[in-house]
Design brief:
By secondary structure, this protein is mainly α. Helices cover about 75% and strands about 0% of the residues.
Length: about 220
Amino acid sequence: MNILRILAACLLTALSGYLLGSILFGVLISKVLYNDDVRSHGSGNAGMTNVLRTYGKLAAVLTTLGDVGKSVAAVRLGRLLFTALLGGQTALDPVCGAYLAAIFCMIGHSRPLFFGFKGGKGVLVGAGAALATEPLVCAVLLGIFLVEFAITRIVSLGSIIIAALYPVATLIHLLAHGADAATVAFSTVCCAIMAAMVIWLHRSNIERLKNGTEYRFGEKKNSSK
């Protein structure tokens, strides 16, 4: 019975997270405000950075609020589903549902059902997940990102760095708060999967970083990039 409950909780959480992630605010905003599709410009991604380069600050702020907001919603729904379906009947804390929802929200964002499976890189989705589950970890990672950005003005490098640090920071946070072994293991693995996804989706950026040709915020972007 417990196994069936766990499977049901995981399936519903994964589905809800994926469907929420498939709502691409960058595309919606570009279509509603500009009768356009941001994915036809720049990097071809539906993320905030490409929206900012293409349409400016207002569209970027709206995209940020939407992408972070959907991740927060997915995380809270995942926690709620685990609480409702599992209660205290398993070793898994409801926060595990939050991390599972975050993974599938990120999958939905990068491969959206509603927009031809072409989305963004999931950095803001990961930020929303961290904000909803571990505000302190989110604040630390944001601080690291801002320092990196102030020095290099390279958004992708900061995104890769904080993605790599996310599972480590989560592990430290959970251990410091006395989480049980099952919760620590499940949550850290989920964060590692999200980090790996973000880094994998930045593989073209990594190549440009190696070549010294990655875009720096504020400079004119050459077509070769």
